[in-house]
């Protein structure tokens, strides 16, 4: 077994020297982007003969373990006194606050680079320079020290010795994984129809460092059919991590179950499930400051011990497991889970940890991405999610409130907010409805940067209260806008959005495919899969697919005789809803009356659902109605009412929390009805999408309305048949289902339908 480990200089020094608290008073989400830009600005000023991003590596051997230490120093400068290692750091602090002992971790990192270079070049001594750059003013402050090779050797030997116990743990869990993968067999007695083909396609895709788009029908077992071959592929050279990405909590649970099945078959690896900060936080309010939260206070003093404990004793690091160890060691469960991603083999979490520029994991470096495979579950959801991720807005009203709130307490902050407010007022002009901004004139970037600078200064100096909480919210909003503004090109439109009297300027992403493609290509391989990745061309296009990507469309493993499909050609158009609501309620009751059991009926909106419900109440039926804003407990209560042998009718919203990702097997669900074709209401944004794709030579109306709408229909209908033994009825209620535009989009196993009047 290979007893060689590789660690970066930065990670080594962070492990040994990190200490103190989490204090996210104004945590900047643009740190990495700003840091990169600042590094580049400093490096542009290097003189002839100076080098930047110099790769360095040194190998240590301790007790039959080989440790390869590597990294890139920011600069290797030439001076009259010999070479200088330059370490560049951006900071939000005033430079006057900094002295040469402010950041031991930074010095340790620079000394690590200095040791490797001095040893390689056989230098007796070498200079080390720490260059601080103030993020807003771009002013610089430098500290210069000279170290002997002897002192650096002693320093690095001590660092390596301190790290060795943790290195042995990491090597131990890596060896467990490597021993268990070759003999791992498929964790079920046999493959379902289509499973072997999907699993083989996933393995081949990862092996060849390609991307795959796969439509795999409900019930085929997509999760195990993608995770199992991806785990087996971890035996390949240069394949180290898997990110299993999803939009739904329930599908994360399914991924955990799949890993548990493999664990029962002998697989030993570490997986971590990431949970949103506001959900996993132990406090009433998510305020990450040491004076408010005991789990933030002293976090870095305790985190190493917590990591060792959980990694030695657990393999499936689910939310309950993480919470248990976080309480035991008194560390923040959210930051704990993020720190675990460094050592975990499989990371399960939301799309945004990879694709959202505002919250993506900055710790995942380019070299690591090349050794990582993405499994993107229910990837049809990623299209609209990506549109949201790559859009941003500035609210006029919030900047007015800020300018008034801080007028006497912080005049500079008040003026900075007022300047943005005035820009928004000028942009709005006399408009009374939303409009397209053809040219976002003015110094928006400069105004936002001035506001962010003043907001950061204020947030650094003040304790948390309602006023500073509001400032923090607007700070993040402005920061997101500035970040998305850098991406704006022909794939975007700028909109002056007027809704309920409120004005926002919105950067609206029409086509997320370009940014998705740029993100995806950094990884070794990606697998996009869903039960409803249809029409294929549309989803491959929208998810940033390339010509040489693999595609796979698997037929349904179920017989069409399991579904009694009925189309009722009743108009559900907005103008006819009042007149047809009574007849619609009757159609739904006839479906219930025909066969006793549990039913889920899906409607285009809450208002329409309530309208039909008022008519349906005349029938003697037990009804559960989806409420707006249901939390997880209420959702579980709703679903728990669907019991085998029950007679419950559920009213729910199409495209909502119950229309996909819900698994009611057997007699828990006997019938589904979908009211309407899922079309979103006409809006300025939808019309802009339509026009954009029409100009690109696609069918703009289909791209904007039909395909997203029908995906909701197919997802809702897909709640019915979840296994080989399931049977039941699906009723599609809308006359447009009988037109060619929509009949061609129905699945093959839905093709044998009856028409009822």
Structure, briefly:
The chain is built from 26 helices and 25 strands. By secondary structure, it is α/β, with parallel strands linked by helices.
Looking at the overall shape, the CATH architecture of the largest domain is: 3-Layer(aba) Sandwich
Strand content: 15-25%
CATH superfamily of the largest domain: P-loop containing nucleotide triphosphate hydrolases
Query: N- to C-terminal separation?
Result: 70 Å
How many domains, in number, for the residues? 4
Q: Helix fraction?
A: 40-55%
Number of helices: 26
Structural class: alpha/beta
Radius of gyration: 29 Å
List keywords for this structure.
Rossmann fold, Fumarase C, Chain B, domain 1, 4 domains, eight-stranded parallel sheet, seven-stranded parallel sheet, 25 strands, globular
Could you outline the blueprint of secondary structure elements for this entry?
Layout: E1 4-8, H1 9-17, H2 31-44, E2 51-62, E3 65-79, E4 82-91, H3 104-121, E5 125-134, E6 140-148, H4 149-180, H5 195-207, E7 211-215, H6 222-232, E8 241-246, H7 249-264, E9 271-273, H8 277-280, H9 299-313, E10 316-317, H10 319-329, H11 333-340, E11 346-350, H12 352-355, H13 366-369, E12 372-376, H14 381-389, E13 392-395, H15 396-405, H16 411-428, E14 435-437, H17 444-461, H18 466-485, E15 492-499, E16 502-509, H19 513-520, E17 525-530, H20 536-542, E18 550-553, E19 563-568, H21 577-594, E20 599-603, H22 606-616, E21 622-625, H23 632-640, E22 648-653, E23 671-675, H24 684-695, H25 700-717, E24 728-733, H26 740-743, E25 753-755
Parallel strand pairs: 1-3, 4-5, 7-17, 7-18, 8-11, 8-12, 9-10, 9-11, 12-17, 19-24, 19-25, 20-22, 20-23, 21-22, 23-24
Antiparallel strand pairs: 2-3, 3-4, 5-6, 13-16, 14-15, 15-16
Helix pairs in contact: 1-3, 1-4, 3-4, 5-6, 6-7, 9-10, 15-16, 15-18, 16-17, 17-18, 21-22, 24-25
